[in-house]
Amino acid sequence: MGFGGGHYWSGGPSSSQANTAAGLPFSGIPTEMADRARELLEEEPEHPEPVVEFSHKQPKVRSLTLRGFLAPYKPQLTLACLLVILETLALQSGPMLTQIGIDHGVLPRRFGVLFVLGMIFLAAVLLQILTGYARTVFTGRLGERLLYDLRVRVFSHLQRLSLNFYTEEKAGVLMTRMTSDIETLTLLFQEGLVNIAVQSLTLLVITIVLFVYNPVLASVTVIVVIPTTFVLSIWFRRRSDVGYTKVRDKIAAVLSDLQESLSGIRIITAHNRHKRNTVIHRDIVGEHEDANMDTARVNTAYGSLTEGVGIIGQAFMLLVGGWMVINADLTVGELTAFSLYLVMFFAPIQSIVQLYNAYQQGQASIKKLRSFLEEPPSVPEAEDAPDLATIEGSIILEDVSFGYSDDAPVLHNINLEISPGESLAVVGPTGAGKSTIAKLIVRFYDPQSGRVSIDGQDVRDVTLESLRRQLGVVPQEPFLFNGSIGENVAFAQPDASEEEIWEACRTVGLDTMVSRLPDGLDTPCHERGVSLSSGERQLLALARAFLAQPRVLVLDEATSNLDSHSEKKIEEALDAVLKGRTAIIIAHRLTTAMRADRIAVIHGGQIAEIGSHADLMAEGGHYAAMHQIQGDILRKEHG
After folding, report:
1. What residue segments make up the domains of the chain, in order of their start?
2. Which of 166, 327, 440, 545 is deepest in the core (most CB within 10 A)?
């Protein structure tokens, strides 16, 4: 349902047509498909609202292991095991029925026995088909539920982690956790684990049957096969564990480089880096290929050697078994059944070898996911943290020091007090620590020493949700999500009415532009807002902040990337948005800072000057020098 009350299917050119004409990416529903889309929506049944629980506190759960992850699903796994047992028993009845048929039906020429055994054989096949189907459906659904829970758990932890984690970790590596690693576990949960159980049980049943038929012959076979296979398996486990961990690292590097190249495609094009970037990506993909080839060689060696062991075991069985038949120690039917069971004995071994590959890949993914899920937020929420009451907007920084790393301090012993409803501009050279002050106030980071408080309450002692609900941030580059303009304005208030959204747009002067669009508020702005200008994106971000009604608003160089005309429109919108609110304005342009009640000058990680524009100009210090330099630049630009 759109914000425009059905504008998705209004007359005139559709948004997708308009976007195509403008050379923009496709978005929206084409006009020729609108009627069918409406019919599908009308046929769609009502779905209950999903119950979503989220906490900034890291849940106290056991470390992610395969056994621990499956533990909550013991009843379902027990039922799956019962189905596996029935399927295995039905599948393994064939050679036994064959032995009975030969010894008691074929040799004595008793057709009635053969007919009965044939019916039993048919019933066993039907039972195996039905139980196999039921097991496949059941375990498939169980596997999807396991992966659903894991995806939600991983995504929730991504939401919980602090900003410094994202500055230190590559986006492509994080995408690997949600894509490649979990896809590997998909194969393991839906096919690998259950098939390992089927083949292992098959191996156990066949081993028991072989010893029941003839302990001597079974012992000879097992002595030849089991020790050699066990030694090979130990070698394979150690070798493949290292190999598959390396494969997971290399696919993360591939996706990381891909994500970076896609995000920076404009810069790549502008600097003609296509060939060089292709060479770099080729090398990264080559390392991934080498890692895969290494594991492939290990798999090939293991599979070939175990297959050879199986052939040698069969040769021993035929030699010893044939000699026992000649000496009347074994019947022809028993030797036939034994031979069939022995063939079936090696088939599970070969299957387990192949499935063990999936298991090893799954274990490598589990290790990566476990390491990720155990990463604690650097800005934790206290266990007994209360909600922050409605604030007036008094902000105090007491002796605050901070650095993004221990050996590179940014702020030194900052002391600052901002009164409720006051606007404070923070200016200074690049890298002085202006934006860092804003990040500490909204608690994107915690100071290494000192205290940040709002209305006398230390921001570390209250819940993050109640704190940030009353703070608004407009960054230098506002991020817009792939969706409609209305959805982006209402991002912080998704329950806002259409009229409230229009009011926010009118307040910042965005309503005229939105009204001219084909679908109004329902017009898609595409991922990152590529269909809007810089000024329009900034106005939209201000409308979003206004609609959220924060008590404190932080503007982080919100006008630094705008031309003079757009800057004037933004500053007019700021007057409306900031009215009655405490504001921290991180400014590069002093024309923006001059609108604040007070101006703080950051120099060398400390507050060098603070006061009104007139007071600082009269002092003739850092601020006056900055004003002189920017004035000279503006005069040169205007001739």
Report:
1. 66-373, 395-637
2. 545
Quick check: pTM over 0.70?
A: no
Is the predicted pLDDT of residue 211 greater than 50, yes or no? yes
Q: What pLDDT, in 10s, does the model give residues 234-252? A: 787 778 778 877 887 888 7
Q: How far apart are CA 199 and CA 164, in angstroms?
A: 47
- What is the model's pLDDT at position 97? 72
Q: Who wins on pLDDT, 340 or 286? A: 286
SS3 state of residue 108: coil
Query: Left if phi > 0, otherwise alpha if psi is -120 to 50, otherwise beta: which for 580?
Result: left
User: What span, in angstroms and rounded, lies between the C-alpha atoms of 331 and 219?
Assistant: 18
Domain 395-637 bears CATH identifier 3.40.50.300: yes
Q: Please give the CATH topology (third level) of the domain spanning 66-373.
A: ABC transporter transmembrane region fold (1.20.1560)
> Which residue blocks in 332-480 are alpha helix, DSSP H?
332-373, 434-441, 464-468
CB 350 within 8 A of CB 343: no
- Determine the Cα–Cα distance for residues 128 and 39; give it in Å rounded to an integer: 43
Residue 151 has pLDDT above 50, yes or no: yes
Q: How far apart are the first and last CA of the chain?
A: 53
CB-based contact 365:181 (threshold 8 Å)? yes
What are the φ and ψ backbone dihedral angles of 395, each rounded to 5 degrees?
A: -125, 130
- CA atoms within 13 Å, Cβ hemisphere of 289: 6
CB 519 within 8 A of CB 15: yes
